[in-house]
Amino acid sequence: MHYLDYAATTPVPAPVAEVMVKVLTEDFGNPSAQYPLGRAARDLVEESRAAVAEALGCKSQQLLFTSCGTESDNWAIRAALWQNRRVGKHIVATAVEHSAVLQCLKALEQEGYEVTLVKPDSTGCITAEQMAAALREDTALVSMMLVNNETGVRFPVEEVAALLKNRPTLLHTDAIQGFLKVPFTAAALGADLIALSGHKVGAPKGIGALYVGGKMKNPRPLLYGGGQESGLRPGTEPVAQMAGFAEAVRRQKATMAEDTAHMAACRDYVLAQTADIPGLVRIGEGSAPHILSLSLTGYPSQNIVSDLGEKGILISAGSACHKGKASHVLTAMGLPKKAAAGTIRVSFGPETTREDLDAFVSALREHQRARFPML
């Protein structure tokens, strides 16, 4: 198997799994229990929070655990709008946000909110000036992702944060594809709310986090119940997932420079090795090291994904969340239909090998020759 879909999910390294197994079988106490096993579990929760917070460059008390990135995004958006309910009911976001954001905004429109979606240019880029032009006096929230999950384009979140510094408008960023892939800290980014997801960085599925910055005053709880997560996200803590998230973050933070250089080298190698394939073009100008979007114009991407999958080469047709539907990202970029229809996403991780890359390039060449045997 040649796995090249790290933007969809990542394998859990053995040391991370070992930490989780120990928690599940030995340190399994309920963190709310008052006896030693419970207190030990509570300590693990807080140690895990501190590890993720350190990697994000924030204080432990500013980080709340969630079940996933989708939950973090939805909670952030609704908490921000609740705080700014007297500012107005206007939201500005990019048209290429993850579906976790866009579907939430769609639901909010049914509740009386007005949403302005800013479109990228044909390279997938959006400027801070474009976002500024969409602002109004009643803009309660701006939502701008850090790295687009399909194109790898890195957006100017810091510049947007600077524009909003003296306004009540709050800024949310989905940093799920950027965390430990592109260098940033919560303070440098300047966003009021930052969403993270564990399974993009070698942690298990089912764990995420939400950073809550200083402009957020008494965030509205996501749920109501016990006092877990400062009373804002009650429910018995999934200690094993939290500990796995923390261990994965520690490992990736320690090797981030080396890993990102390796992933960028993988991306550049594939670009160089496929440069002479007729009809193949790069989509977008992504600077994130781990994502590469390509189009074999005129041939359905699902066929490419299926054909390569039969050979054990695992890639995706854009985001894994689309499930075969047309990509809203490529549509917003204004790509010709044939180019959009033939777009695939190849994404890399620390474990990606030259053998994986060569297998992909060879299979793509074979696929193209099958289409055009005269070439």
CATH class membership of one domain:
Alpha Beta
- Separation, N- and C-terminal Cα atoms: 28 Å
Helix count equals: 13
Q: Which percent band covers the strand fraction?
A: 5-15%
Radius of gyration: 21 Å
Ranges where pLDDT stays below 50 over 5 or more residues in a row are none
What would the principal axes of the Cα set say about the shape?
A: globular
Helix content: 25-40%
| Count of extended strands | 12
Instruction: State the secondary-structure class.
Output: alpha/beta
- Give the full name of the CATH homologous superfamily of one domain: Aspartate Aminotransferase, domain 1
Question: What is the N-to-C succession of helices and strands?
Answer: EHHEHEHEHEHEHEEHHEEHEHHEH
Strand order of the largest sheet: 2-8-7-6-5-3-4
Q: Kindly identify the CATH topology of one domain.
A: Aspartate Aminotransferase, domain 1
CATH architecture descriptor of one domain? Alpha-Beta Complex
Task: Output mean pLDDT.
Answer: 94
- Main β-sheet description: 7 strands, mixed
Structural features, described:
By secondary structure, the chain is an alpha/beta fold. The protein has a domain at 2-9 and 255-371: Alpha-Beta Complex (Aspartate Aminotransferase, domain 1), CATH 3.90.1150.10. Helices cover 40% and strands 14% of the residues. The chain has helices at 14-25, 36-56, 69-83, 99-109, 128-134, 157-163, 186-189, 239-254, 256-273, 301-310, 328-332, 337-341, 354-371; strands at 2-3, 63-66, 90-94, 114-118, 139-143, 170-174, 193-197, 208-212, 280-282, 291-296, 313-314, 343-347. It has a seven-stranded mixed β-sheet with strand order 2-8-7-6-5-3-4, sandwiched between helices. Helix 5 crosses helix 6. The protein is globular. The two termini are 28 Å apart. 47% of the residues are buried.
